[in-house]
UniProtKB/TrEMBL annotation:
Residues annotated as transmembrane: 6-25, 32-51, 57-83, 111-132, 138-158, 170-191, 203-228, 279-297
Keyword Transmembrane: yes
Keywords: Membrane, Transmembrane, Transmembrane helix
UniProt superkingdom: Bacteria
GO MF annotation, one: L-lysine efflux transmembrane transporter activity
Entries under InterPro entries matching the protein: LysO (IPR005642)
Protein name (Swiss-Prot/TrEMBL): Lysine exporter LysO family protein
Amino acid sequence: MYSGLLIILLPLVIGYLLPLKSPALQRLINRLLSWMVYVILFFMGISLAFLDNLAANLLAILHIASVSVIAILACNLVALRLLEKHRPWHHHHQQEALPSRLHMALESLKLLGVVVLGFLLGLTGWTFLHHATQASEYALFLLLFLVGLQLRGSGMTLRQIVLNRRGMMVAFVVCISAFVGGILAALVLGLPLTTGLALASGYGWYSLSGILMTESFGPVIGSAAFFNDLLRELLAIMLIPLLIRHHRSSALGLCGATSMDFTLPVLQRAGGVEMVPAAIVHGFALSLASPVLIALFSS
């Protein structure tokens, strides 16, 4: 158990401990990280094509993803509503013109297209494609190393994180309530509780959760994790403008780990500049917790 956890966390920790001050190097790492995500998801699609009883497994993926996303988001929203009731988030911001939600949704779906492309290639059955699983393991180690560098290069200090109470409160509520949702999903689906907890620990970071879960649980659970977190991000893009006026904590919590990058422009324009520090802290905390928790529950 602990050796598997160490193998997954070691490249992440090494990357995080290395100082990263050059803006040019940070841009290069961000670009490499984007490409590595495409590469590994392509490998995941190939592995999916080699499943036995393919049609039945595809139905299982959709079933697991549907149940898990409903259970996890329902628990998140109930818990965040309770937070809003006891700790209201006062504001006086009027919504600005929002970026195209359709365009942002299409950007998210590009990664789904890469998985489908790998799946279609895998259906050819070419012999050399059987090495895709092993290749994805090495690519995963490089990805985690780059994620560690990116988190270090974000410039967030522990002091800044702790001082933003709203961002940390929302992240904590999302984290704990997601565990409850993951346990409920596991009970409904007949899965081990640790699998449900791992599914709940992606927090919308589909490009990472799908990869880590595939390595630990195989392509069925890994693909379900990918769709679970992809749906979370797509729902966040669509629902932020509706929730932001009266349910700011819910709008932020729905974004999960993506609040520090992909969904940040929507949060800023809909909720104002005051949303930005909380969104960055919230996203950073969940981005740091996600690979650690997935590795822990997967080991």
